[in-house]
Amino acid sequence: MSESPRPAAAAVPEWVREHYALVDAAEVDRYSEDFSEDIELRFASHPAVRGRAAVRDALAAGHAEHAMAHTIVNCWQSGADTILEFDVHYSYPDGRSLLVPSLAIIHRNAAGLTDSLRVYIDKPR
């Protein structure tokens, strides 16, 4: 996998590092445990997906299409909200790979579970 041309952010909360390590390992069942039962996921311009099971299934479909490796290049936090800027390296079964900048906005509820995840990405085809 090619590396991000930008350096990884130094100040990233441990829960973010742990979560995205599971994402990159395609451990969808494990990282879905970080989501509240009423989570809402919006990925790019796609319609929102609601509920832990539906979000898990939507994310599993992405893992079935490609592998991912996230480099967090910036992280901002304000209260229960976290904004992450990534370089994401996608690897496809046919050997293609893409390095794509993206942004995630995460809101965590009082229990520390993610109840809103908004991912903004313009992935070339």
Describe this structure in words.
This protein has 125 residues and is of the alpha+beta class. It has one domain: Nuclear Transport Factor 2, Chain: A (Roll), CATH 3.10.450. It has 3 helices and 6 strands; from the N terminus they run ααββαββββ. It has helices at 14-24, 28-31, 52-65, and strands at residues 35-43, 49-50, 67-78, 81-91, 97-108, 114-121. A hairpin with a 5-residue loop joins strand 5 (97-108) and strand 6. The longest helix is centred in the middle third of the chain and has 14 residues, at 52-65. The model has no long low-confidence stretch (mean pLDDT 93).
- Average pLDDT metric: 93
Q: Helical proportion?
A: 10-25%
Beta strands, count: 6
Structural class, judged by helices and strands? alpha+beta
CATH topology: Nuclear Transport Factor 2, Chain: A
Number of helices: 3
Strand residues, percent: 35-45%
Rg over alpha carbons: 14 Å
Indicate how many domains the architecture comprises.
1
* Approximate shape: globular
CATH class descriptor: Alpha Beta
- The secondary-structure element order is HHEEHEEEE
Please summarize the sheet with the most strands.
Answer: 6 strands, mixed
CATH level-two architecture: Roll
N- to C-terminal separation? 18 Å
Oligomer: single chain
Low-confidence stretches: none
As laid out across the biggest beta sheet, the strand order is: 2-1-6-5-4-3
